[in-house]
Design goal:
SH3 type barrels, Rossmann fold, 5 domains, 18 helices
Length: 703
Amino acid sequence: MAALDDLISQIPDESLRERIRAEMKRANRQKKFGLAFEEHLPEATPLYDIPVKRGSVVAKKDGHITDIYYVERIEDGQATCYHKASKERVVLPVDALVCVAQFGEPIYPYLQPLDTVCNAPDSDLWHTLIEADNYHALQLLEYLYAGKVDCIYIDPPYNTGARDWKYNNDYVDGADTYRHSKWLSMMEKRLKLAKRLLNPADSVLIVTIDEKEYLHLGCLLEEMFSDAKIQMVSCCINPGGVARASEFCRTDEYIYFVKIGSASPTPLRLGNEWMGSVKNTSKTKAHWDSLMRTGTNNMRSDRPNLFYPVFVSEDGKRFIGAGEPIPIDADRNQVAVPEGARAIWPIHLDGSEGCWQIGRETLLDLQERHFLKLGGFTDRGMAISYMKSGQQEKVLKGEYQILGYKEDNSYLLDDSDYAPAFIPGTQWLIPLHDASRHGSGILRKIFDDKVFAFPKSLYAEHDTIRFFVANKPNALIVDFFAGSGTTLHAVNLLNAEDGGHRRCIMVTNNEVSVDEAKSLTARGYQPGDEEWNKLGIARYVTWPRTVCSIEGHDVNGKPLKGDYVTSGEEPMHMADGFKANAAFFKLGFLDKNAVALGRQFKELLPVLWLKAGAHGPCPALEETAEVPAILVLPVNHFAVLTDESQYEAFAAQVNGEDSITTVYIVTDSEPGYREMISGLHAEDTYQLYRDYLDNFRINHGGR
């Protein structure tokens, strides 16, 4: 590209030159940079909530989700269908079929409340777990939180070939020659949506992966987040190693940090294990920098204004003063020295004249404020040191204890209790990140059994997230490959440590394991049946872990044993749980022929609650209750007007409640909506159309 730029610059016509440069820039943005993969068959979605009727698009529950049939008629529980591809007509039991949404076909979601856990009734902080295919959940979250998420942490399937993930309801195994492109296709669709969730000014996407896909993932991230700063960290998760046939044992995995906007890791107070094998005492002790300049531009001739004498007492214990810089051609030995003092000059080991780090006025100011320290005499004069601004701040904040003052007026400090704050290197060899002890081990405390393969260490995820949300006590954190639920657990631990109010949204499907699927099928159960659902990961692992960790007990109700490892002085007992609340929803789908805002308002309430910030417990209306004309919910910080004729009363109620920050108005009139919101004091207002279909359609083309 550099050669082309040179050639373009030689074009005399300025207008033509700029046009060609613009076209080059556009073409450059469209390059694949070596990463090319097939889209394969579009993903399809089973809709277990939608009843099978005449005209439905269906698949067999125990077959391939992309093996599509159309229902012609239904009689006595039997559906006459014809096959999409072969056109063959068959008769199948209705109970053996599930409605299917093909790619690009609009579907209409809602959130069905399943359960709640409330261990902090006085707090308005509520976390959320959504049971769903994450692609559709992300589409819903885009409506709710576009550009508002501070941190996305995901641990996607590693595509090991061990049947660890599905594509169109079929496990992808090591014999599938297209497994890499299927994986990339799956990830790209979800990362496109994730990108729209992240705050463009300051946010981070964190993705963990192993050696099977890290190269492909890295290329994909570089391509999709070309304006972001991307860095990869190696994290030791199993010091003993995981055996791989005819290969080196795997001890680590990789973490990609995609830093959006101004995002950067925050220096944290970390233990010595974060420093690696070579300990840096400047990070663990009060650090005084040498006054003598080293490196580049360190000669008198380079910085003549920094060549001046420092006067100290004959015994070297007291500071007397500092002289003015002398002319470049002046002899330092001719400078007058105060009586009873010695002149200290910046002289190199070879006897050449150097320069100081700082000017005379700055030196005098530092000495007066106790940040200049005299050392012992040397052959060249004396070692003098000073504190830079960062170290000064630590002294002034009390991070180093001031014991008094030395004879040279410098601070006498006690740094024995100091814990350094710094950004570590890219190789993390941290014992607490051991997934066996602090991932599987913690799950065994809760379940007393192995219910999930390869869970993340609680502390590995806690530390990873903390680098980016430590200074964001109200951060919104999303994990759409939630697995066993480590992310929410880690967020609660972080909040408990520093008093934060961070909120976590987790998404996971409710798949059962291969062995459980075989057993359930043998017993006559099918996907979507209650017996099948209760053994899925969301209901069998993710939600029970969430409840137990918050309430401080195992699945049998016994108090959890042990303490969390924290940096605090007081122990944090697992049995104490966390002062936190969480709501559990299932993402369901409504029949498009039966939906209207008036009839589906109850189903919409959880969505409106989430969009308003999920403050307080999710509201609900009685099944038989009429849709209210005015709904004002101070605990939840939002209000809804469904009948425009009641606007005056609605405005009076809303403006009289300081806690109402979000308002929804149901109207098809754009001018009417604008006029109504002009009289409201709410921070955020949204127009809801009377037709549910216009508000919450997802999965349609162009997304």
